[in-house]
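Deliverable D2.4 — example input (structure tokens):
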């Protein structure tokens, strides 16, 4: 029995084939993944209210990264509602948020849609006092630099900060495509 021709060479070739197939499957999944969920009329209405717009919102096309399932744009051009899903203390269920931004990428509002964070901790972070630090501002946000994380809810606070940053990055990708 020749070790190279009988065992090592076929094992190597099979490993290369498997790696190629796995890579092709991952590539296909990432490039054809669709959110798949229709946006309900209730969610659209909530997004319109957050944007203070009576105009319809339209879903923007594109891939915005794994933390931004979709972006809604006001038809009248008044701004955007970006849905983000980020992980805080609970690594199994994301914090779902709407980040409301105007055309200059200034944060107008933040709304937690759903979360499974520890209730007493999340109630500290998911308050207007914390969210007010973002309102009227744009740019990259960071704990200890331009945002004060909530003591006792640092992980949830940092998740919200990440969600806002993901929303801004996703909106930047739309603006780059429009240019």
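Example output (designed residues):
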């Amino acid at each position: 029995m020749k070790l190279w021709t009988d065992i090592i060479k076929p094992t190597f070739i099979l490993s290369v084939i498997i790696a190629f197939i796995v890579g092709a499957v991952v590539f296909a999944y990432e490039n054809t993944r669709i959110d798949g969920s229709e946006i309900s009329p209730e969610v659209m209405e909530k997004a319109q209210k957050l944007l203070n717009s009576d105009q319809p919102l339209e879903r923007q096309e594109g891939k915005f990264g794994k933390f931004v399932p979709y972006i809604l744009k006001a038809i009248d051009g008044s701004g955007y509602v970006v849905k983000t899903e980020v992980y805080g203390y609970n690594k199994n269920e994301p914090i779902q948020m709407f980040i409301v931004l105007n055309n200059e990428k200034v944060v107008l509002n933040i709304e937690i849609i759903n979360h499974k964070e520890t209730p007493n901790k999340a109630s500290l972070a998911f308050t207007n006092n914390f969210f007010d630090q973002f309102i009227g501002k744009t740019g990259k946000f960071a704990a200890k630099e331009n945002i004060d994380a909530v003591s006792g809810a640092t992980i949830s606070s940092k998740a919200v900060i990440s969600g806002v940053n993901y929303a801004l990055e996703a909106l930047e990708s739309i603006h780059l495509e429009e240019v």
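The longest helix spans residues 3-32.
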